[in-house]
Amino acid sequence: MNAPFDTATAFGPDAATQPAPDHQVAVIGLGYIGLPTAAVLASYGWNVCGVDVSEKVVETVNAGGVHIEERDLDRLVSEACETGRLTASTEVPTAHFYMIAVPTPLTDKNTPDISYVEAAARAIASKVLPGACIIVESTSPVGTTERVAQVIAELRPDLKLPVFGSQEAGDIAVAYCPERVLPGKIVRELVQNDRVIGGITPDCAERAKALYSSFVEGDCLTTNARVAETVKLTENSFRDVNIAFANELSVIADDLGVDVWDVIALANRHPRVNILQPGPGVGGHCIAVDPWFLVSSAPKVARLIRTAREVNDFKAVYSERRIRGLVDAMPGKVALLGLAFKPDIDDFRESPAMEIALSLARTRGQRIMLVEPYADELPSGFAGTGAHLASLDEALASAEVIVVLVDHTAFKHLTPADFAGKMVYDTRGMMKR
Ligand code: SAJ
């Protein structure tokens, strides 16, 4: 399949006189978003270069392999490499489209660090040709897309950059299109989800839309860059606030001596109530991080969003405290079910289950059994603690205390009868759902 996009006309009347770019699309950052996006684009016929600072990642991708676990990704990358449509490099090439998908971590002051986005912009500035379109996908504080344009303007005085609020087209387009895919369903959601595309000018949005509408089956909705940046932060803050409600409710219910799962199930039978599920805290790389981007941009007024973050962080502390109470009340073995940051995923980073398990292992290691169907061996942090990886059967046979930290499908057949005679703390309400 050829890329459904006529680059000659898209790049204006001077296109024929400009040097031809090396690639149609350059994706900067081959992580959880960049690599699947690059592979999907290649599968839709685009000639894609994935760029990463890690030589190891570049080598792996060029060999048709993947360095991250995500459903269907290995097949997609190997096929894309076989067709020659996906290659990887540590150098940014010339391209029609540049997509920036690098990390935007939090600093220790809970403010966003956009230095990787700025570094990507500088690398692009050294190569970009008139007519190109630069799209930021990384979750970013409001104003980042304009900052990218500013970095390029400083380094390339020969180019006219678009200006926010102006209707005038620049020599290159700069836009923001946040990723919205759910880990575990990334490949499917990349194609199916609606996309929000915010241009620095309306022309920038339209030019970025040409790329997305070639592979997105959902709607491609255009707006301005600041709105699109705020939309991304809003989506994850909305979810964090709603999970915080469930987590706070679970602590209140414990205080009142009522079963929170019964309360939620019955309250959700109201036609306008839809409470999410409490857990041992909120993990992952997005929901527990992105709300801080909003809070730090408006610290005096973002009170609910800040409090929700604090409530969700506290739930991990509270859960560990409750588990320690059980561990100290019983002399025998303790089985912790699940380490991942959410069910049916093998990602243990930023996982409250992992944090709780590590903390318990450090002080009670000899008694701790970890059951994690997505781990072949114990993560390195447990080395020397005495904790060991156990099968579910072994845990059920020998543990006195059972704690459900993650409701993996592999555990869902369990019923209270499987835990007869044991102390149980089910942080996810798995057996009530
Ligand atoms: N969680 C609960 N209770 C719930 C739902 C989730 O405790 O009822 C916990 C999970 O266990 C996990 C955390 O929240 O620890 C986050 O899981 P998630 O499934 O809510 O979200 P992520 O982090 O996997 O992906 C989110 C998604 N955003 C929204 O649903 C608004 C995804 O669409 C985004 O693309 C992604 O963040 C991102 O990259 O920003």
What structural class results from the helix and strand content? Answer: alpha/beta
Rounded average pLDDT:
94
Bound molecules: ligand SAJ
Q: Order of strands across the biggest sheet?
A: 3-2-1-4-5-6-7-8
What is the CA-based Rg, rounded? 24 Å
Q: Name the overall outline.
A: globular
**Uncertain spans:** 1-5, 8-13
CATH architecture identity of the largest domain: 3-Layer(aba) Sandwich
Characterize the biggest β-sheet.
8 strands, mixed
State which percent range the strand residues make up: 5-15%
Total helix count?
A: 14
Separation, N- and C-terminal Cα atoms: 45 Å
Count of domain modules = 2
DSSP summary, beta strand count: 13
Summarize, please:
This protein has 433 residues and is of the alpha/beta class.
Textual characterization of the structure:
The chain has two domains: 199 residues, Rossmann fold (3-Layer(aba) Sandwich), CATH 3.40.50; 198 residues, 3-Layer(aba) Sandwich (Rossmann fold). It is built from 14 helices and 13 strands. Strands 3-2-1-4-5-6-7-8 form an eight-stranded mixed β-sheet, sandwiched between helices. It has a five-stranded parallel β-sheet with strand order 11-10-9-12-13, sandwiched between helices. The N terminus is likely disordered. With 433 residues, the chain is of the alpha/beta class. The longest helix has 32 residues. Helix 2 crosses helix 4, helix 9 packs across helix 11 and helix 12 packs parallel to helix 13. 39% of the residues lie in helices and 14% in strands. It is globular. Bound molecules: ligand SAJ. The site of ligand SAJ has 20 residues, from helix 9.
